[in-house]
Design brief:
Elements: E1 26-28, E2 37-42, H1 48-59, E3 63-71, E4 75-82, E5 87-95, E6 99-106, H2 124-135, E7 140-141, E8 144-145, H3 148-178
Antiparallel strand pairs: 1-2, 2-6, 3-6, 4-5, 7-8
Helix pairs in contact: 2-3
Length: 179
């Protein structure tokens, strides 16, 4: 007979003990699934039983079914710049890494958390600026941004980031001193 404080486990738990899991389960906002389902992107070596055990042990979430699917990475032609010929040269065929997605059926509906209005604590503008620099061909050489316009935009984004971080730190210290 189970005690009052302990919930009965609705399934047989796995025997594999993972004390500090290195797995990253990324919740995916998917409008095409039912409210009692949630979609996650998981590592390729995680199986359905691991997903079920992980969600039960970490979040106490009862799952009825776990559907997994592997998306095979697309094939592309790798290219490299050949300085002797002065042009881009095609190399071999490669494949992007595959990804695994699982859809979990739960016993109660799942409500996604609201998207934040202010993305400055998450450095969104700085990440966007870095992505823009990476998309620009030959923008960086030996860690220095060659294009002066890009360099100026990046410095502005970095200064804005530093100001936001200082404001957040000031808010935290003000909240602590108010208590």
């Amino acid at each position: 007979m189970a005690s009052k404080g302990v919930a009965k486990i609705p399934f047989r738990l796995g025997d594999k003990k993972i004390y500090f899991p290195q797995h990253v389960f990324t919740l995916i906002r998917s409008p095409k699934i039912r409210p009692d389902q949630a979609a996650f992107r998981v590592p390729l070596n995680v199986n359905k039983f691991d997903v079920r055990d992980y969600l039960w042990n970490i979040y106490g979430l009862r799952t009825y079914a776990v559907k997994s699917m592997i998306y095979v990475g697309k094939i592309y032609r790798a290219k490299a710049f050949n300085p002797t010929k002065g042009r881009w040269q095609a190399l071999d065929w490669r494949r992007h890494s595959s990804q695994k997605k699982v859809i979990v059926d739960m016993d109660r509906p799942f409500v996604y958390p609201a998207a934040p209005d202010n993305l400055s604590p998450y450095n969104k503008y700085l990440h966007d600026m870095i992505a823009k620099i990476r998309r620009t061909p030959n923008a960086v050489e030996k860690g220095v941004i060659k294009n002066p316009k890009l360099r100026e935009q990046f410095n502005e984004a970095r200064a804005k980031h530093m100001a936001d971080q200082k404001a957040l730190k000031d808010e935290d210290t003000a909240a602590v001193t108010a208590e």
